[in-house]
């Protein structure tokens, strides 16, 4: 079995069986391609079925000298998934990474913004320019709904259900969820939609896209990163922030104010509650308050 055939089958499995997005499939494929490239460079003759644990281990040792622990752990995880698939399909009897441990990387806690910092960033937007109203609506949506940047740029007019108080969000793996949207966020989206967007020369194929650039096309991820970076410089915020910082702040502020972790999980679109639990580590005082309020021995 050739590597390209095995990888193509694996990509098909990830898309059809697991419903993963194209970006995720590409990232998983990179891990396998790194192994194949290393085999070719070192003239190691091995196919997906014959490659041994020792050969894979040599590859892991080699990349450990070039990448940090977090990247190394991700590559090991990606390769383990690939070989698990081959075992599942009876191409192999064992997974050559079964006994290989990923390095302990620790859990990196996300940066968050205070409400005053978020207010300052939004206040720094120049509303005299047409894109100002758009940028305010974007930041309010990022923070008010806890969306990923990819979810914001793909938001459509037909996803807005303002009367019901929700927006429809398409997340990872093309999975949809409904997220509550506050009246203030609806207000700023409405101003942009009715007063700015309606006057744009909207290009074909972008008629339903909510947030557009000046040329009437969908915004890029990079553009939103740039908008936030420029605003943070104006405000003198030294933290390294990105669109995802608003998502982290959304979850953290909800938790600090007593929101249920399961509800936050649903709004963020996390498949596992374990992913959402990282926010508990940001503010352990929340756990103490829960015990003080709800435990029968609190008095």
TrEMBL record:
<dbReference type="InterPro" id="IPR050090">
    <property type="entry name" value="Tyrosine_recombinase_XerCD"/>
</dbReference>
<feature type="active site">
    <location>
        <position position="244"/>
    </location>
</feature>
<feature type="active site">
    <location>
        <position position="247"/>
    </location>
</feature>
<keyword id="KW-0229">DNA integration</keyword>
<keyword id="KW-0131">Cell cycle</keyword>
<dbReference type="InterPro" id="IPR013762">
    <property type="entry name" value="Integrase-like_cat_sf"/>
</dbReference>
<keyword id="KW-0963">Cytoplasm</keyword>
<feature type="domain" description="Core-binding (CB)">
    <location>
        <begin position="1"/>
        <end position="87"/>
    </location>
</feature>
<feature type="active site">
    <location>
        <position position="270"/>
    </location>
</feature>
<comment type="subunit">
    <text>Forms a cyclic heterotetrameric complex composed of two molecules of XerC and two molecules of XerD.</text>
</comment>
<keyword id="KW-0159">Chromosome partition</keyword>
<dbReference type="InterPro" id="IPR011932">
    <property type="entry name" value="Recomb_XerD"/>
</dbReference>
<dbReference type="InterPro" id="IPR011010">
    <property type="entry name" value="DNA_brk_join_enz"/>
</dbReference>
<dbReference type="InterPro" id="IPR010998">
    <property type="entry name" value="Integrase_recombinase_N"/>
</dbReference>
<dbReference type="InterPro" id="IPR044068">
    <property type="entry name" value="CB"/>
</dbReference>
<dbReference type="InterPro" id="IPR023009">
    <property type="entry name" value="Tyrosine_recombinase_XerC/XerD"/>
</dbReference>
<feature type="domain" description="Tyr recombinase">
    <location>
        <begin position="108"/>
        <end position="292"/>
    </location>
</feature>
<dbReference type="InterPro" id="IPR002104">
    <property type="entry name" value="Integrase_catalytic"/>
</dbReference>
<feature type="active site">
    <location>
        <position position="148"/>
    </location>
</feature>
<protein>
    <recommendedName>
        <fullName>Tyrosine recombinase XerC</fullName>
    </recommendedName>
</protein>
<keyword id="KW-0233">DNA recombination</keyword>
<comment type="similarity">
    <text>Belongs to the 'phage' integrase family. XerD subfamily.</text>
</comment>
<comment type="similarity">
    <text>Belongs to the 'phage' integrase family. XerC subfamily.</text>
</comment>
<comment type="function">
    <text>Site-specific tyrosine recombinase, which acts by catalyzing the cutting and rejoining of the recombining DNA molecules. The XerC-XerD complex is essential to convert dimers of the bacterial chromosome into monomers to permit their segregation at cell division. It also contributes to the segregational stability of plasmids.</text>
</comment>
<dbReference type="Pfam" id="PF00589">
    <property type="entry name" value="Phage_integrase"/>
</dbReference>
<dbReference type="Pfam" id="PF02899">
    <property type="entry name" value="Phage_int_SAM_1"/>
</dbReference>
<dbReference type="InterPro" id="IPR004107">
    <property type="entry name" value="Integrase_SAM-like_N"/>
</dbReference>
<feature type="active site" description="O-(3'-phospho-DNA)-tyrosine intermediate">
    <location>
        <position position="279"/>
    </location>
</feature>
<keyword id="KW-0238">DNA-binding</keyword>
<keyword id="KW-0132">Cell division</keyword>
<feature type="active site">
    <location>
        <position position="172"/>
    </location>
</feature>
